[in-house]
Prior knowledge:
Elements: E1 10-16, H1 26-37, E2 41-48, H2 52-63, E3 70-74, H3 85-92, E4 95-96, H4 98-112, E5 122-126, E6 129-134, H5 138-152, H6 171-174
Parallel strand pairs: 1-2, 1-3, 3-6
Antiparallel strand pairs: 4-5, 5-6
Amino acid sequence: MADRDFIPVRIAVLTVSDSRSVADDRSGQVLADRIGDAGHVLAARDIVRDERAKIAAQLREWCANPDIDVIISTGGTGLTGRDVTVEAHRDVYEKEIEAFGTVFTMISWGKIGTSAVQSRATGGVAQGTYLFALPGSPGACKDAWDGILAPQLDYRHMPCNFVEIFPRLDEHLRRK
């Protein structure tokens, strides 16, 4: 929209993996590249093991950081026993954004058909911070960013977007 200026958002990327390092973290790199290309700020990037308590602790630490507006995790959203990212996110959420997973499934359906049912991508809000859990594949990260997050994290996107309601995400914490 011509009447709105772009507002850069400060985004942290968390890769959940027992085997990845920054050097071979393709999904985290896809997100980092897209964040920068869109004009946003990569505020932090880290890798944690597939352990629910460690994932939740990192999410909570970043939610408490006033220099981080959004956290995107990649990995650990599947169905195996080690896939605990969704549970860790839900341990932290104050509110879940149920439609995020639904829209992600709709986008995935067009690319991978019925295999889309194996993803448990999720989104939520905690301490005035948006959190999103994406699958660990670079393709899924591209799909989620391009199809959902890029427009919703752009203040110019109409009719509404995540950025315009940032000031109200934590209003319940400010009530007397």
